């Protein structure tokens, strides 16, 4: 049950990360990885009872997945922005040719 719940929470986090990483503001994509790091630090050093060393692996996997999605989302945003600009340029050229 706990593995299923952890996987479900991770999937929801990854979906939100996917959405935030493609936003116009590049810092929004860094919010969730930062929260994962802060939560991991809280779990390892402040929370009682503290998590053991074996819990580092799931946090690390989630962090690197989020970081990779952030980088990928930025490239998707730049590609989409470039395609939009090219589309607008073509529209302007067609409009100029028709005059």
Which helices and strands, and how do they pair?
Blueprint lengths: L1 H20 L9 H16 L9 H43 L1
Helix pairs in contact: 1-3, 2-3
Description:
It contains 3 helices and no strands. The N and C termini lie far apart (67 Å). The protein is mainly alpha-helical. Helix content is 80%, strand content 0%. The chain has one domain.
Describe this structure in a few short sentences.
Keywords: Membrane, Transmembrane, Transmembrane helix. The chain has 99 residues and is an all-alpha fold. It has helices spanning 2-21, 31-46, 56-98.
- Extract low-pLDDT stretches: none
Q: Main sheet?
A: none
Roughly how many Å apart are the termini?
Answer: 67 Å
Task: Return the string of H and E elements.
Answer: HHH
Percent of residues in helices: over 70%
How many whole angstroms does the radius of gyration measure? 20 Å
Q: Mean of residue pLDDT?
A: 86
The class by helix and strand makeup works out as mainly alpha
**Large-scale geometry:** elongated
- Structural domains: how many: 1
Share in β-strands: under 5%
* DSSP E strands, number: 0
Number of helices: 3
Transmembrane segments: 27-46, 53-71
Keywords: Membrane, Transmembrane, Transmembrane helix
């Amino acid at each position: 049950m706990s593995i299923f719940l952890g996987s479900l929470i991770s999937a929801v986090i990854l979906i939100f990360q996917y959405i935030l990483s493609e936003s116009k503001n590049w810092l929004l994509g860094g919010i969730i990885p930062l929260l994962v790091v802060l939560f991991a630090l809280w779990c390892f050093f402040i929370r009682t009872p503290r998590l053991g060393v074996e819990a580092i692996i799931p946090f690390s996997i989630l962090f690197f997945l989020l970081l990779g999605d952030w980088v990928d989302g930025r490239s998707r945003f730049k590609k989409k922005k470039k395609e939009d600009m090219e589309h607008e340029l073509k529209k302007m050229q067609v409009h100029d040719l028709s005059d």
